[in-house]
Amino acid sequence: MTQDTGVTLDSYGLRRIFGLFATGVTVITSIGSDGNWIGKTVNSFTSVSLAPPRVLFCVHQDSPMLHVLRERRVFAVNILEEGQEGVSRAFASRNGPRFGATECSTGDTGVPILNEALGFLECHVVAEHDGGDHAIVIGQVARVGRLRGERPLTFFNSAHTRLIS
Asked: What is the pLDDT of residues 38-78, one digit of tens each?
C-alpha cells in the first residue's frame, strides 16, 4: 500500500526528501592554475574504499570548482566541526570572501587546508562520472590529518544541526 505524501517528483520535492538524510558538512578546496584557491561547501561526500583509500563527492556541472578539478586533479576534503556554520555558509555562497572566514595552511599538493576543520583528506582525482546535473568525483587519498575538536557539523532538513549524545 502506498500513501500520497504530498511530495512531488520535482526539484523542490526532491530537495525536501533528500534533506531528510542527515549528512556531515565538508568544504572541498583546490588551487587553480593561476594560484588562486577555490573552495565549496559540499555535503555529498562519502568514503568509497579502504584499499585503495578512495572518497567521492558530487559537484554541479556548472561549478567553477569542477573546471579546476579537471585541470589540476587535486583537492582536499575539510571536515567541518560543530560551530563552523559560518564557514559552511561562507563557502556555500556564490559571492563574497570565502577564505577570509577561516585560516588555512597549504597541503603537500598545494591545496588549502582549513586549519580549524575537524580533519582533512588530501586527494588526487582518479575518476569522474556523469551524475546528471552533477559530476561524481572520485579521489584517491594521499594524506589525512585530524586537526581538532570532537564533534562534526551536520546538516539535516536544510539546516545545520549538532549531534546530541
From this structure: 999 999 999 999 999 999 999 999 999 999 999 999 999 99
Residue reference for cell 565538508: 26
Residues 6+ apart with CB under 8 A from 36: none
- Tell me the backbone φ, ψ of residue 119, rounded to 5 degrees: -170, 175
Element (H, E) at 57: strand 53-60
DSSP-assigned letter for residue 151: -
Angle CA 153–40–114, to nearest 5 = 60
Where are the domains positioned within the chain?
A: 23-157
pTM, to two decimals: 0.88
The pLDDT tens digits of the residues spanning 84-129 come to: 999 999 999 877 668 877 899 999 999 999 999 999 999 999 999 9
Going from the C-alpha of 70 to that of each of 25, 77, 139, the distances in angstroms are 23, 16, 12
Let me know if domain 23-157 sits in CATH 3.10.310.10.
Answer: no
Smallest CA-to-CA distance from 88 within 140, 24, 165 is with: 24
